[in-house]
Design a protein that fits this description.
By secondary structure, the chain is an alpha/beta fold. Helix content is 57%, strand content 19%. It has two domains: 2-149 and 385-519, Rossmann fold (3-Layer(aba) Sandwich), CATH 3.40.50.300; 181-336, no CATH class. It contains 17 helices and 15 strands. Strand 12 (453-457), helix 14 (465-478) and strand 13 (484-487) form a beta-alpha-beta unit. The longest helix is centred in the middle third of the chain and has 67 residues, at 318-384.
Length: 553
């Protein structure tokens, strides 16, 4: 319930604080007095977009603040979801600077416009003349049926399953697309894998093969030089080892007489031992070196294969080729996993679709059961609005596909004249008839559900007399179970309000401002009399106004 509205520097309203009652509130004022400005302010705190034209002329920022009693609206989950502080008395504020930049707050916590709008839809239902266009919206029509049929729990369950169903459909489409691409690449990948597999590559073999081939390629030169080195060291007629042995022996002859000579003897003996070992290894290596053209050819062919594969796959090493081999194996394995994933997803999708159809069938049955009640209640209320000859029928027909609301297509057939052919409501009903049907729908929904504050913005256009009385009576009845605000130009409706607000303009020093004030007792009586007869108040108008007010008590 909207308990208070504070407006600062919004359009022509410099400063206004409005207290609303819990039942039926009426707002009156002359055409152009600023009732639309008030609606604009309400729209701002329920998430409408704003610009600099909203800001008044005094240069200060525009502020619209609404205080709502939300205790009975089951909104704690919303506040928790968006990390907002919950309070039974919730304050919603909108600020707009001179450049048109806007900020929104819920209980002093900044929020973006989408969150404000989401909350606003749960707090205020603004019903204008133009909202009758929503009667053409099948989703709106179905929502009305669901409200009376009490399908909320079932519909929530269906929507949750339908959401899962759509995600599975999307996933399956993505998997099938991936599979199609994989199949197109499979032959090429498999060819690459087979080629690498047949190569039987081994880590480190390239380096070893390159070294061995280098040796085999220069085997004769290596063998010749090794034998030459061996000969110079110890096998030749004049060799190093013989000369060094003689030198060592000479030092040995004098070692016992001279300490230094003894040390040199030991050092030269160590060199001889090392050189004999080098000579032996050189000879052994020379004998081991073989000349094997066939082995060289095989190594060369093996390295050519490795080099070709490296070039083909644009890699730099044998390790890179082995990593590519593992990657291709994994890719082939993934294709098999993809087939399994598609199969599992198809089964899951089928189960989800079956569950959706089961829930949708239950929804259809529950809705169909409620249709006679809805039709009867609507015709009863429409009849009270001087349309007693009307006929109305709601048709539910099955769709050939699942939708967000089930498998029901809806159509409301209507005629305002008994015996005339029924036709599509929006096509055959006049503007005034649509307004009265919409009012009947709102009144019916409010009987079955806890609607938020509902604001009727001059939906009484085009009606008068007894119809106006009955329209006001219906709004007053709605006000017994919820907060109703009606902006009206009809005294028959204004007289039935429990709280009466007046919007008016005043011009001082060439500056026009809009004001809003509550009317009580004499002021209210005179306002309704003025609506009946104009600015010149007559006793007859005042008496008539008294009757209108008394009739609403």
């Amino acid at each position: 319930m909207l308990s208070k509205l504070h407006i600062t520097n919004f359009a022509l309203i410099e400063n206004a604080e409005i207290d609303f009652g819990s039942g039926f509130n009426t707002i009156t004022g002359e055409t152009g007095a600023g009732k639309s400005i008030l609606m604009g302010a309400l729209a701002l705190i329920t998430g409408a977009r704003a610009d600099s034209s909203s800001v008044g002329t005094n240069g200060a920022k525009c502020v619209v603040e609404g205080t709502f009693n939300v205790k009975d609206y089951s909104l704690k989950g919303f506040f928790k979801l968006h990390d907002l502080d919950y309070a039974n008395e919730t304050i919603v504020r909108r600020e707009i600077n001179a450049e048109g930049k806007s900020r929104a707050f819920i209980n002093d916590t900044p929020v973006n416009l989408s969150i404000l709008k989401e909350l606003g839809e749960q707090l205020v239902d603004i019903h204008s003349q133009h909202q009758t266009l929503s009667l053409a919206d099948k989703n709106y029509q179905l929502a009305v049926v669901d409200a009376i049929a009490n399908t909320k729990a079932l519909l929530d369950e269906y929507k949750q399953e339908f959401s899962a169903y759509k995600k599975l459909k999307t996933l399956l489409a993505e998997l099938l697309e991936k599979q199609q691409k994989s199949k197109a690449d499979f032959d090429y990948i498999n060819f690459q894998l087979t080629e690498l597999d047949e190569a039987k590559l081994q880590e480190g073999e390239q380096e070893k093969a390159e070294q061995e081939l280098e040796t085999l390629t220069h085997a004769e030169d290596i063998k010749m030089n090794l034998f030459k080195a061996s000969g110079l060291l110890g096998d030749g007629e004049q060799n190093i080892l013989t000369a060094l042995t003689e030198a060592r022996n000479a030092l040995g002859n004098i070692a016992k007489y001279n300490t230094s000579a003894s040390e040199l003897y030991e050092r030269l003996n160590s060199v001889l031992i090392e050189l004999k070992d080098v000579q032996n290894e050189t000879e052994t290596l020379a004998e081991a070196i073989g000349i094997d053209p066939e082995r060289a050819a095989n190594l060369s062919a093996r390295l050519d294969l490795i080099y070709r594969l490296q070039k083909k796959h644009n890699v730099q090493s044998l390790t890179d080729l082995l990593e590519l081999y593992d990657k291709l194996q994994q890719q082939i394995g993934n294709d098999a996993d993809l087939d399994n994933q598609i199969s599992a997803t198809e089964k899951e999708l089928k189960l989800s679709e079956e569950q959706c159809h089961t829930l949708a069938a239950n929804l259809s049955a529950q809705r169909t059961k409620a249709l006679p009640v809805i039709e009867g209640e609507l015709l009863k209320t429409i009849g009270r609005l001087n349309m007693a000859g009307s006929e109305l029928h709601i048709n539910l027909t099955p769709l050939d596909h699942l939708s967000n609301t089930g498998v029901d297509d809806i159509n409301i057939q209507f005629t305002a004249n008994k015996g005339s052919k029924l036709g599509d409501l929006v096509k055959v009903a006049s503007g005034g008839e649509l307004s009265r049907v919409m009012l009947a729908i709102k009144a019916l929904v409010c009987k079955y559900t806890a609607l938020p504050t509902i604001i009727f913005d001059e939906i009484d256009t085009g009606i008068s007399g007894e119809t106006a009385h009955k329209t006001g009576a219906i709004m007053a009845e709605m006000g017994k179970t919820m907060q109703v605000v009606a902006i009206t130009h009809l005294p028959q409706i204004a007289g039935k309000g429990q709280t009466h607000l007046k919007v008016y303009k005043q011009t001082k020093a060439d500056i026009t401002k809009t004001f809003i004030k509550p009317l009580r007792d004499r002021e209210r009586l005179e306002e309704i009399a003025r609506m009946l007869s104009g600015d010149k108040l007559s006793e007859a108008a005042l008496e008539n106004a008294k009757e209108l007010i008394a009739g609403s008590l």
